[in-house]
Specification:
The protein has 353 residues and is an alpha+beta fold. It has helices at 34-44, 167-170, 179-185, 208-216, 244-249, 296-303, 318-331, and strands spanning 2-6, 10-14, 62-66, 71-74, 78-86, 89-91, 94-96, 102-104, 109-112, 117-125, 159-160, 176-177, 192-199, 219-225, 229-233, 256-261, 266-268, 275-278, 285-288, 290-294, 310-315, 337-338. It has a 7-stranded mixed barrel with strand order 13-20-17-18-15-14-21. Strands 7-6-9-4-1-11 form a 6-stranded antiparallel beta sheet, with no helix packed on it. The chain has a 5-stranded antiparallel beta sheet with strand order 2-3-10-5-8, covered by helices on one side.
Length: 353
């Protein structure tokens, strides 16, 4: 059992989310940076976190911590790992490295400090957090108020059920994510962060010049950013003359379309005034044109941006996006864990470097 002594700014229980329920108006939720939680789970010997909308097991549930993390007391022995944003991890007031599996004695207090780079850190506990499943997932959906602990962020005094670690979990103590991969997955220090997108599904509604401006100009993350959507300010974008069917069925606003499905990572442009990258708690359908869609691995990068950070959107072919998504899953596997395997020496970067 884990007792929450201080909850942090917004700490929630997350796994790989609950795909398959869009028709009922239920979005996937889950970890915004699924790669960070995936590697934290691998470090402690848990089932890894899958990407949003992938089928199959959802991975073991851990904690997603926004900005300032929690302070927790472990009533039983455990194995834990913290990944994602650059934070200070303390176990019984002693600093401990992140991206590493640690043994925690019964009665120990674990504290996660404010994020210095990035915004979301992730905590995996061997065996996972065993809150009840809702539609096959333990993830918290904040805007729907379901899953996790009563569908809300953790509060002081909450108790999270866990299971006793196995011998295999204890063997993970000391394992680390190798430095090559860690450098690729750490939130970016760069002045301008590159985010890869596939154009569409409604890029044909924008003028050619506006598509060029979208890809050629910098965008800045505004303070209005959460798990539903990330608002970016940048160049004004303009639309072509509206087809008659849109005037008839969607109205006169040039950015309005007949409502359709909104993908995670879809980039809406209401009235051409701002670009909104949809997060893992995005609405299921909407009526704004989407100029592009962030590819799956880079959704994690968006989830680690801080307000004021600048990005450039780079268009890639859909086939390249699929290859990148498959490669990152192959790379973020057991081979990424030092002290267990040293076989990972990829010649190319996950993020196109």
């Amino acid at each position: 059992m884990i007792e929450i002594l201080e909850p942090g700014a917004q700490t929630t229980v997350q796994d790989g989310g609950r795909p398959g329920h869009l028709a009922a108006g239920i979005t996937v939720a889950g970890a915004q940076d699924y790669l960070a939680l995936r590697l934290a789970n691998l470090l402690v010997g848990n089932a890894p976190t899958p990407p949003p909308f992938s089928l199959g097991p959802r991975g073991d549930a851990g904690l997603e911590c926004l900005l300032a993390g929690p302070k927790m007391r472990f009533t039983d022995e455990a194995v834990i790992a913290v990944t994602g944003a650059e934070v200070r991890l303390e176990i019984n007031s002693r600093p401990a490295p992140t991206w590493t599996a640690h043994y925690v004695e019964p009665g120990s207090v674990v504290a996660i400090g404010p994020a210095r780079v990035g915004v979301r850190s992730y905590v995996a506990i061997a065996g996972g957090i065993r809150v009840p499943e809702v539609l096959g997932s333990r993830s918290t959906h904040l805007f729907a108020g379901r899953g996790g602990v009563a569908g809300r962020p953790l509060r002081r005094g909450d108790q999270l059920p866990t299971v006793a670690p196995s011998a295999g979990h204890f063997e993970r103590v000391g394992a680390t994510v190798n430095e090559q991969l860690r450098e690729q997955l750490r939130p970016a220090f760069a002045d301008v962060v590159r985010i890869r997108v596939v154009l569409g599904p409604q890029d044909e509604l924008f003028t050619d010049q506006s598509v060029e401006d979208f890809l050629g100009e910098e965008w800045t993350l505004s303070p209005v950013a959460d798990r539903m959507g990330f608002r970016f300010t940048g160049p004004r974008l303009y639309f072509k003359e509206r087809p008659p069917y849109l005037l008839r069925d969607a109205g006169p606003d040039p950015s309005n379309i007949v409502d359709d499905v909104i993908p995670v990572g879809g980039i809406q442009v209401p009235s051409g005034l701002e670009a909104i990258v949809m997060g893992v708690e995005n609405p299921t359908v909407g009526g704004f044109a989407k100029i592009a869609t962030v590819i799956t691995p880079d959704i994690c990068r968006v989830g680690q941006l801080r307000p004021g950070q600048r990005v450039m959107f780079t268009a890639v072919h859909p086939e390249e996006a699929v290859i990148a998504s498959l490669r990152v899953l192959e790379t973020c596997s057991e081979d990424a864990i030092d002290n267990l395997s040293s076989s990972l020496h990829k010649a190319t970067s996950l993020f196109g470097g």
